[in-house]
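Before a colleague's protein record goes any further, I have to sign it off. My question to you is simply how this chain folds and whether the tokens agree. I do not need a full report, just your reasoning and any doubts. This is what I was given:
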Amino acid sequence: MNDDGLTEAVQEAGAVELLLIRHGESEGNVAATEAREAGAEVIAVPARDADVNLSDIGQEQAKALGVALARIAEEFRPDAVVSSPYARARQTAEIAVEVAGWPVRVRTDERLRDRELGILDRLTRLGVEQRYPEEVERREWLGKLYYRPPGGESWADVALRLRSVLAELNNLGTGHRVMLVCHDAVIMLFRYVLEGLSETELLDLAATTSVLNASLTRYVRPSGAGPWTLESFNVADHLTEQGVTVTEHGGDTSVHPR
């Protein structure tokens, strides 16, 4: 892969620890919440999904994340930081690494991007119900894992992307650590793949838990091979400790098949 790809990054790194971080609050998160509360059908996002920036709060969250990362002893710091190419994730990674003072370059990999929504992009749940009632029915029948909107992806599609990322990590040498900055659905699906969750277990988790902005989820495997162990999930204590607003912008909790 090219210089921005994950392959090169993890060849330089390896995998005994995997640190997953959701991006800070974005302008899209704010716009989606405002649209839902206003009963609007369309979310007034300022740019295409890939180009939506962090909100002011999101930037503060990324700085607070950097302060927390700076506390990690040098021998335990990630050797590679790889981000979704979407602006909100890349900005989170770049701000955090700069504040932490880590001498590591932030690389990007499109496999870490957010789920693509196809024709449902920029629509609230009300907007989907009003404009595509047949898609609502199809989603309720199939459930979150397997429903694919026209032109978009299912969660299963995203899981396939992540399996290829993890295959690279699993085939490399030991003794190194990787930090991935990505999106809420991506982190949920990392859990699905890494822990071998069933569909029901995944959807139960998605129905009851929102991945917080700028939160940390940590997996370890000291031997550098075999299964990963979840050490912590969805931790945002570093935000409250620094007086930074904790934001919860989750997805639809109606996720189980009918």
Notes: The mean pLDDT is 92.
